[in-house]
Amino acid sequence: MEKSVRKGKLAETAVQVLDPISVPTEKREVYITVKETAEFLRLSEISIRRLLTKKKLRRFKCGARTLIRLKDAEALIREA
Questions:
Q1: pTM score
Q2: How far apart are the C-alpha atoms of 23 and 27, rounded to whole Å?
């Protein structure tokens, strides 16, 4: 798509979703699985799922997979 066709924030976001390579690396979100989050935080997977249930961590579903934004896991460490 040409820039003249892409107008507004919504159109820009749609292009980023459809073409993730166009998004600069520093703006890309990194998502990790429950198992990877448990390893990163040195907790059990059950503990991570409890944190998700208590809404201490935000979950993103991708089909059957539960993903967690790495920034959220890092923020949990800073809060502790």
A1: 0.67
A2: 7
